[in-house]
Amino acid sequence: MKSLGNIRRAFAPWSDPSAKPFIAFKNVTKRFGHFTAVNDLSLNIYHREFFALLGASGCGKSTLLRMLAGFEQPTSGEIILDGTDLSGTPPYKRPVNMMFQSYALFPHMTVEKNIAFGLKQDGMPKDEMVERVSQMLKLVKLEQFASRKPNQLSGGQRQRVALARSLAKRPKVLLLDEPLGALDKKLREETQFELMDLQQSLGLTFVVVTHDQEEAMTMADRIAVMSHGKVVQVATPAEIYEAPNCRFVADFIGDVNIFDGKVTTASNGAVEIAVDSGFTVRTASSGAPAVGSALGFAIRPEKLRVTRAAPANASINATKGELWDIGYLGDMTVFHVRLPNGNVVKASSLNAQRTVDDPFTYDQEVWVSFDEDSGVLLRD
Ligand code: ATP
């Protein structure tokens, strides 16, 4: 069976037409004065889904999260949670909790008291509260830090206290705004897996806002890529990466080479494009674009092959170029190849062996080639 990428878990309620969404944004718009932060946006999120909102700064992702939490009211549209319209429900009555970027821990309170804070405010009986706090400490592996204050903890430990505090009230949905922003790279990667394990073991729905695409790709079941208050594509990480639905998404996620050109032939589900870089791209196409129409073709660097010898069929999906730059990154090497029209393409190859028999050097003439099914057509 062919599939786009490896699948993290067998969970795909969005492809089951009978599955009801747990959270539904219906034509939601949010205006601040004359500025539209969220623009007629509709989106479904499913029970137990780890959902990521991804987009550049200012695209409206935090506003969307804040409306779900109840800190902002939509200007128009509806937000439905578990079958109930949330309008008019104040934040503290929503089965939703939010973990903020800054963690917002109380500096004068111990870890234990920070976690107990919301429970105490809700008037939870003492015995039950002690039991719940101890469960939470265990969950985030901070039992031995219960009586420390936040300033006696590392960044990662503080992040776990904030997580424990936001989970203590057992919300149905946890909203996380840049949850790992304050952690260094290594800790961030470890914590991403911890968050995924926690979300699955608790059976909760997580909605995370991030501008870090790798983080979204690693953790999320599905990603919504946002731009200017709209969702541009909602799909699994592999679909977003391997089958972006437009130029914006192709360019926003990961590295990509985009070749623009005009259709020369289109038949039998395949299309040929004479691209501006001076060669012919042949690739699969659903529908038959008109001969002469303008199309783009996007291909990721790891799908390009760089070779000294010409490929077997050098007239299709292949071009000559000059090796312009070589970047050795340890696990892989990145090649910048300058094509005859001056465009530079990026190719990458894994360094699976420690040594290379006949290494590439700058300024060499090379061929760049790729397989027919290794890129996608861009219609806009
Ligand atoms: P970031 O990653 O920088 O947090 P974001 O995608 O989360 O960005 P939002 O915080 O949702 O963006 O903001 C979207 C837009 O709405 C921004 O242009 C912002 O300036 C504007 N905005 C947000 N809150 C308000 C407000 N209370 N009043 C006026 N404008 C606002």
% residues in beta strands: 25-35%
CATH topology of the largest domain: the name is Rossmann fold
Number of strands: 20
Largest sheet: 6 strands, mixed
Instruction: Note the gap between the termini.
Output: 30 Å
User: What would you say the CATH architecture of the largest domain is?
Assistant: 3-Layer(aba) Sandwich
Class from secondary-structure proportions: alpha+beta
Family: Belongs to the ABC transporter superfamily. Spermidine/putrescine importer (TC 3.A.1.11.1) family.
Pfam families: ABC_tran (PF00005), TOBE_2 (PF08402)
Subunit structure: The complex is composed of two ATP-binding proteins (PotA), two transmembrane proteins (PotB and PotC) and a solute-binding protein (PotD).
GO molecular function: ABC-type putrescine transporter activity; ATP binding; ATP hydrolysis activity
At a glance:
With 380 residues, the protein is α+β, with helices and mostly antiparallel strands. The chain is built from eight helices and 20 strands.
Kindly describe this structure.
The chain is α+β, with helices and mostly antiparallel strands and 380 residues long. The protein folds into two domains: 13-95 and 171-251, P-loop containing nucleotide triphosphate hydrolases (Rossmann fold, 3-Layer(aba) Sandwich); 255-378, OB fold (Dihydrolipoamide Acetyltransferase, E2P), CATH 2.40.50.140. 22% of the residues lie in helices and 33% in strands. It has helices at residues 61-69, 111-121, 126-139, 155-168, 185-202, 213-219, 237-242, 247-252, and strands spanning 23-32, 35-45, 50-55, 76-81, 84-85, 96-99, 173-177, 205-210, 222-227, 230-235, 257-267, 270-275, 280-284, 294-299, 305-307, 318-328, 332-338, 344-350, 365-369, 375-378. The strands form four sheets. It has a six-stranded mixed sheet, with helices on both faces. Strands 13-12-11-14-20 form a five-stranded antiparallel sheet. A five-stranded antiparallel sheet has the order 15-19-16-17-18, with no helix packed on it. A hairpin with a 2-residue loop joins strand 4 (76-81) and strand 5 (84-85). Helix 2 runs parallel beside helix 4 (155-168) and helix 3 crosses helix 4. The longest helix has 18 residues, at 185-202. It is globular and about 75 Å long. Bound molecules: adenosine-5'-triphosphate (ATP). Adenosine-5'-triphosphate (ATP) binds at residues 32, 35, 37, 55, 57-63, 211.
